[in-house]
């Protein structure tokens, strides 16, 4: 009896433990070779349908970064039933673990070449001087005041809640509440302007949002139009419009410690029916000055310290480099050498300081 039991137990052990000669499971199929371009366009390539997770992890497609290679084709596991399990394959391309390969080289900023032209501006409102002052004769009202230069006689028009129309025309949207005021001026520099008493604005009548933001259809709370009018010289177009030059200053109000101040958003220049939006370029004043002084260090390129500045960095608008240094620097960095802001474009401006410029 004991021998029979031992043989039965032995047979059970033989059945549960296969001999070394048992057939081995087939090797997993080799995944197809994937070229490196697959990773570049992975954003447009869906993951395989056999992906074990129905919601594959997101990969953010930044320039120069690549997603990991797709999982290899699953195969049935011989010892764990009919389930399918992916088998990790060898690393492909530049993919190594959780690390990303080195990003692609940053494209150098585009260099735009422009030749500066001289535009005669007969009247200029100094935007930093634009402000509101209390109307002493009418408590609660405020008058617009500023300083301006004029090389020809003309007129200044103050409008509230106005928008720009075609051909330098302005349209007032709240004429019933605030009348448009036009005041003539004579030729002169550093002139002081203040709105006539009784024509100012009462801030209490309007909502603060209307005063501090640009409204729909580009309606600005404050618009000042300074026009050098040759009408007194008999110059007028056939359609009745003026042939003179105009400058439009568009601004909003902002509240600081309970008091309203003026903040200029845009200045527009109309010359010979051409519209120009004025942009400040920092450092161009030293460059366009006709008197070339070799001892003036404010005109040289900040890189080589020898050539004159002629290239402006956009969008920060720093004119700080010569064209030669700009062409070299744009392949080495995408930061402005003055403010370290990112560079989108480089604008090369050639200024003609000759007698015909």
Question: Would you spell out the secondary-structure blueprint of this structure?
Answer:
Elements: H1 2-16, H2 37-40, E1 75-76, E2 84-85, E3 110-115, E4 123-125, E5 131-134, E6 142-150, E7 154-164, E8 170-172, E9 181-185, E10 188-194, H3 208-212, E11 220-228, E12 245-256, E13 259-271, E14 274-277, H4 284-288, E15 311-314, E16 318-321, H5 323-329, E17 345-350
Parallel strand pairs: 3-17
Antiparallel strand pairs: 1-2, 4-6, 5-6, 6-10, 7-8, 7-9, 7-11, 11-12, 12-13, 13-14, 15-16, 15-17
Keywords: Lipoprotein, Metal-binding, Myristate, Transferase, Ubl conjugation pathway, Zinc, Zinc-finger
Pathway: Protein modification; protein ubiquitination
InterPro entries: LOG2-like_mRING_C3HC5 (IPR045195), MGRN1/RNF157-like (IPR045194), MGRN1/RNF157-like_N (IPR058981), Znf_RING (IPR001841), Znf_RING/FYVE/PHD (IPR013083)
């Amino acid at each position: 009896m004991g021998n029979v039991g031992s043989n039965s137990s032995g047979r059970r052990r033989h059945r549960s433990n296969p001999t070394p000669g048992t057939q081995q499971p087939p090797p997993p199929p080799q995944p197809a070779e994937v070229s490196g371009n697959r990773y570049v366009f992975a954003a447009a390539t869906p993951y395989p349908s056999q992906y074990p997770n129905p919601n594959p992890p997101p990969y953010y497609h930044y320039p120069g970064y690549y997603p990991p290679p797709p999982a290899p084709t699953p195969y049935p596991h011989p010892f764990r039933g009919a389930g399918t399990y992916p088998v990790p394959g060898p690393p492909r391309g530049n993919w190594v673990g959780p690390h990303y390969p080195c990003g692609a080289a940053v494209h150098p900023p585009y260099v735009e070449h422009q030749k500066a032209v001289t535009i005669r501006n007969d009247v200029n409102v100094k935007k930093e001087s634009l402000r509101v002052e209390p109307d002493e004769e009418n408590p609660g009202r405020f008058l617009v005041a500023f300083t301006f230069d004029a090389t020809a006689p003309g007129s200044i028009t103050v409008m509230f809640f106005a928008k720009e129309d075609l051909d330098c025309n302005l349209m007032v949207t709240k004429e019933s509440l605030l009348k448009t005021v036009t005041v003539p001026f004579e030729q002169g520099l550093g002139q002081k302007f203040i709105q006539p008493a009784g024509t100012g604005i009462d801030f209490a009548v309007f909502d603060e949002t209307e005063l501090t933001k640009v409204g729909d259809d580009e309606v600005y709370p404050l618009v000042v139009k300074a026009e050098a009018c040759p009408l007194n010289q008999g110059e007028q177009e056939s359609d009745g419009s003026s042939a003179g030059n105009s400058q439009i200053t568009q601004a909003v109000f902002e509240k600081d410690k309970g008091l309203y101040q003026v903040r200029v958003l845009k200045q527009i220049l109309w010359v010979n029916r051409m519209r120009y939006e004025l942009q400040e370029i920092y450092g161009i004043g030293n460059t366009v000055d006709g008197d070339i002084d070799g001892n003036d260090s404010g005109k040289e390129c900040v890189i080589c310290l020898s050539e004159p500045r002629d290239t402006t960095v956009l969008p920060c608008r720093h004119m700080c480099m010569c064209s030669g240094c700009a062409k070299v620097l744009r392949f080495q960095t995408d930061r402005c050498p003055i403010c370290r802001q990112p560079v989108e474009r480089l604008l090369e401006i050639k200024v003609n300081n000759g007698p015909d410029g």
